[in-house]
UniProtKB/TrEMBL annotation:
Pfam families assigned to the protein according to its UniProt record, in alphabetical order: PK_Tyr_Ser-Thr
Protein name per UniProt: Homeobox protein
InterPro entries found in the cross-reference section: Kinase-like_dom_sf, Prot_kinase_dom, Protein_kinase_ATP_BS, Ser-Thr/Tyr_kinase_cat_dom, Ser/Thr_kinase_AS, Ser/Thr_Kinases-Pseudokinases
Gene Ontology molecular function terms on file: ATP binding; DNA binding; protein serine/threonine kinase activity
Domain Protein kinase: 76-338
Top-level lineage group: Eukaryota
Amino acids binding ATP: 103
Record family assignment: Belongs to the protein kinase superfamily.
Taxonomic source organism: Hibiscus syriacus (Rose of Sharon)
Record keyword Transmembrane present: no
Matches recorded under SMART domains: S_TKc (SM00220)
């Protein structure tokens, strides 16, 4: 029963949140209805003209995508839907008989897709095509006609979000959580080194391998190259958005704000906290209250977390972006912490006996601080060296 309740809560959080406005009406509803009918009859032609102009503007968009990035859609077969976004659906499918993931922009007729979504689609294609990292989803190709779609490798493990939901209320093992966090950090380190901000780092945009041991970054719909002159502020998802993306005063749609790649570091901190606790950040609060809490420097509880990881979280979600570390530093920090965890849990290494004859006298004159001298039955000396622990095996 408890597990079912967690799944219901998770499903509810996955839906788009909306704010309801209550209006006090100074006039009877019938009067307002009659007035609206009259206004509609007066302005109906103007509205239709504006819509025609908007559609014409959207249709005039010319894609600037290298032909080498485009594939023949006749070789793409769609199967079941595995995800859905604000303006797209994601399906399992096949490209030339190879299993792939296919992101289809809605509506399926390109001429009906608004200009803003066409621009996002083009930007995502161009950015994904540049990516070459083991922790970033692999781009295969894109199509513009007769349907706008992006084809990538298929990750059989599903999203990190659904994996965590399936585990609740249990947590992942600490090392497992840290391994996944290190994968995410390395992917973000790669993006930032190439001047790209993701701006929507969250568990539903992180895809797992079939064995659930590794993760890849996906969905570059909001990603963009970092610029100095300000960027749009309506980017991201509230529970993972950095507070500098909010504004106490209403901002026009498309308004610019000054922020940098450190917004991804804040989002990473929230994802890392979820990996460690398997809880929803700011659970039970709607979007507005989440934004208000983050702006007031309220953060999830660090109770029960390792001290060193708690310190990392505090640095990453600091209110001042300048205090937040770079992903290069985060990757190094996590690598060091994982190594210490592995070393602490590893049994003492076996001692390997290596025969040392007189011909090795010069070598024996080296530092022998970790060397144990033993005698064999013939009275000859042997040196014993501890085996080296391979960190790569741990990772």
């Amino acid at each position: 029963m408890q597990l079912e309740q967690y799944k219901k809560e998770a499903s509810a959080m996955d839906r788009v949140e909306s704010d309801e406005l209550e209006l006090s009406l100074p006039y009877p509803l019938q009067y307002i209805g009659d007035t609206l009918c009259k206004l509609t009859s007066i302005y109906i032609n103007d509205v239709e003209d504006e819509e025609d102009e908007e559609n014409e503007e959207g249709n005039s968009f010319v894609f600037q995508i290298d032909e080498r990035l485009l594939i023949d859609p006749r070789f793409v077969l769609l199967d079941k839907m595995i995800g859905e976004g604000s303006y797209s659906t994601v399906h399992e499918g096949f490209y030339k008989s190879k299993p792939v993931a296919v992101k289809v922009i809605q509506p399926s007729n390109p001429s009906a897709v608004i200009r803003e979504h066409k621009e996002k689609f083009q930007r995502e294609v161009l950015l994904l095509s540049r990516m070459d990292h083991e922790n970033v989803i692999k781009f295969i190709g894109a199509s513009v006609e007769p349907t706008m779609m992006i084809v990538t490798e298929l990750m059989k493990g599903g999203t990190l979000q659904r994996y965590l939901w399936s585990m609740r209320p249990q947590r992942l093992e600490l090392k497992h959580s840290l391994f996944l966090a290190l994968d995410i950090s390395r992917a973000m380190e790669y993006l930032h080194a190439n001047g790209i901000i993701h701006r929507d780092l969250k568990p539903s945009n992180l895809l797992l391998t079939n064995n659930k041991m590794h993760v890849k970054l996906a969905d570059f719909g909001l990603a963009r190259e970092e610029v100095m002159g300000g960027m749009t502020c309506e980017a991201g998802t509230y529970r993972w958005m950095a507070p500098e993306l909010y504004s106490r005063d209403p901002l026009p749609i498309g308004a610019k704000k000054h922020y940098d790649h450190k917004v991804d570091v804040y989002s990473f901190a929230i994802v890392l906290w979820e990996l460690l606790t398997n809880k929803a950040p700011f659970k039970g609060r709607d979007s507005v209250l989440v934004a208000y809490a983050a702006a007031k420097n309220e953060r999830p509880s660090l109770e029960g977390l390792p001290t060193e990881i708690a310190s990392l979280l505090q640095s990453c979600w600091a209110a001042d972006p300048k205090i937040r570390p770079e992903f290069k530093e985060i990757s190094a920090y996590l690598t060091s912490f994982i190594y210490r965890c592995c070393s602490a849990e590893t049994k003492p290494p076996k001692m390997v006996e290596i025969d040392r004859s007189e011909s090795h006298a010069e070598e024996e004159s080296l530092d022998t601080g970790h060397v144990t001298n033993k005698c064999n039955d013939e009275g000859k000396k042997k040196k014993t060296y501890p085996c080296l622990i391979c960190f790569e095996d741990c990772l």
